[in-house]
Design goal:
Elements (H helix, E strand, L loop, with lengths): L1 H8 L24 H4 L11 E2 L1 H27 L7 H27 L23 E3 L5 E4 H18 L10 H24 L10 H11 L1 H6 L2 H24 L1 H5 L4 H14 L3 H21 L2 H9 L3 H8 L1 H42 L3 H29 L4 H30 L2 H23 L4
Parallel strand pairs: 1-3
Antiparallel strand pairs: 2-3
Helix pairs in contact: 3-4, 3-5, 4-5, 4-6, 5-6, 11-17, 12-16, 12-17, 12-18, 13-14, 15-16, 15-18, 16-17
Length: about 450
């Protein structure tokens, strides 16, 4: 199952778009003045270059996704059900894959990877109209393209495997015909609009000035365009309110919390213990480490999305999607955390975490490639969790009798560091751009990890 998730996560690092076609300029009028006729004609835009290596990799990736589904996914789900239903599950995955592949050719590619609206594309490429062996699909590099047929096949496999994954949720509990009807509806009204909103754009060659960049940005940021930029903050406030309400209800419902005196009295007691905890020298070092950690990591991380938009000319939707590589890096570390702790120990984790943070932010500052930049974001996520969990573990051990107050104090300074980091980084960005912020984060976090390793080596004193 972990391997399956790893294969699916690879899609986060891939970028796709539709072909940008250049139109011929009209011929000069016969009565054009001689002086203007003598002016040199404007050079025609260079034809995008098709690289054999890019095309080969796309075809290999297409074949791998097919193998992931047939037989990979089919056999995986077949092994999870009773033996009498194995053949049924195999056929459900196989037929779902084939059905979505047919629908992709008929209308799926057209409504996903053509312009039209905020949620769906147009119908100009029904039955792959206009897609030939000579047509090209844009990439994220200016002047570089891939054959559109290869792009169609590659995206087709992901649409099909996504619908095939759903088979496991209703295995043995739904009729075969109902499964196919659901696959058609989900593909049309869930997968296609999401793929259109996240992945479709005209490619970097279509961005020639500030106005064209604004058009691409507005198309990708459909949420802000249709609902306003304040909407996301209202949504976050509502979500946090719900979380706070659930916590209050849990405190009132949980008898263990009631016996421990939960409420305003317990909060006052926790706040009263915090000044005493600051006297502890080890805790002061750990709190300072948390503050500096928040300052460098999150001060720079706040500008990653806008950096991707400006550096690689991607829209807000795709930039936000790529930033999720930070979470993916943390999840990969979480899967390997137990083994990493046994093999590396605390000092090894601190060292490796600092190295990952240094490499990640250095890659953000210097990488000219979007894929490498996305991997750098993932390295930052993994490095943060390696270093942060090691620091926080020591916080819980400093004062076992006041563990809750110690953790709360540590978290307070961590969040203060985040706010301070964003404030300082914003002034640097205004004056010198975002690259110095990432370089400072790389060097600062490497120094912090080195100092924390020395702290551990000296017995935490």
């Amino acid at each position: 199952m972990k391997n399956l998730f790893a294969w699916i996560a690879m899609t986060v690092c891939l970028a796709f778009a539709c072909v940008a076609m250049a139109q011929d300029k009209p011929a000069a009028a016969p009565d054009k003045p001689a002086a203007e006729a003598m002016k040199p004609a404007a050079a025609e835009p260079a034809k995008p270059k098709v690289d054999k290596g890019d095309t080969a990799w796309m075809l290999v990736s297409t074949a791998l996704v097919i193998l992931m589904t047939i037989p990979g996914l089919a056999l995986f789900y077949g092994g999870m059900v009773r033996s009498k239903n194995t053949l049924s599950v195999l056929m459900q995955v196989f037929v779902t894959f084939c059905l979505i592949a047919v629908l992709w050719v008929i209308y799926g590619y057209s409504i996903t990877f053509t312009g039209g609206g905020a949620f769906f594309g147009g119908l100009s490429k029904l039955f792959l109209s206009g897609v030939t062996g000579e047509s090209l699909a844009a990439t994220f590099s200016k002047g570089v393209a891939i054959p559109e047929l290869a792009f169609v096949a590659f995206q087709c496999t992901f649409a099909a495997i996504t619908c095939g994954l759903i088979v496991g949720s209703f295995a043995e509990r739904i009729k075969f015909s109902a499964a196919l009807v659901f696959a058609v509806l989900w593909f049309t009204f869930a997968y296609a609009p999401i793929a259109h909103m996240v992945w479709y754009w005209d490619g970097p060659d279509a961005i020639t000035d500030a106005k064209s960049l604004e058009v691409v940005t507005a198309a990708a940021g459909w949420l802000g365009e249709h609902f306003g930029w304040r909407t996301i903050f209202f949504a976050m406030a509502a979500l946090l309110f719900v979380v706070a309400l659930l916590l209050v209800l849990e405190v009132k419902r949980n008898p263990l919390a009631a016996r421990r005196g939960a409420g305003r009295g317990a909060i006052r007691q926790s706040l009263a213990r915090m000044p005493r905890l600051l006297v502890h020298p080890r805790l002061r070092v750990l709190i300072a480490t948390g503050y500096v950690e928040g300052l460098f990591i999150f001060g720079a991380l706040a500008f990653v999305a806008i950096y991707l938009q400006r550096r690689f000319l991607v829209g807000p939707g795709l930039a936000g999607t790529l930033v999720t590589a930070y979470a993916a890096g943390g999840m990969l570390y979480a899967l390997a955390a137990r083994r990493a702790v046994r093999r590396l120990g605390e000092r090894g984790l601190a060292t490796l975490g600092g190295a990952a943070l240094f490499i990640g932010y250095l890659g953000l500052a210097l990488s000219p490639f979007l894929t490498l930049t996305t991997l750098s974001i993932g390295a930052v996520g993994a490095g943060f969790y390696m270093l942060h969990t090691t620091v926080q573990t020591h916080v819980t051990q400093v004062a076992p009798e006041d563990r809750g107050s110690a953790v709360a104090l540590f978290a307070t300074f961590l969040f203060l560091g985040q706010a301070s980091g964003v404030w300082l980084a914003s002034h640097v960005v205004d004056g010198a751009g975002m690259t110095p912020v990432f370089l400072a984060a790389a060097l600062g976090l490497a120094a912090l990890a080195t100092a924390f390793r020395y702290f551990l080596s000296s017995g935490g004193t």
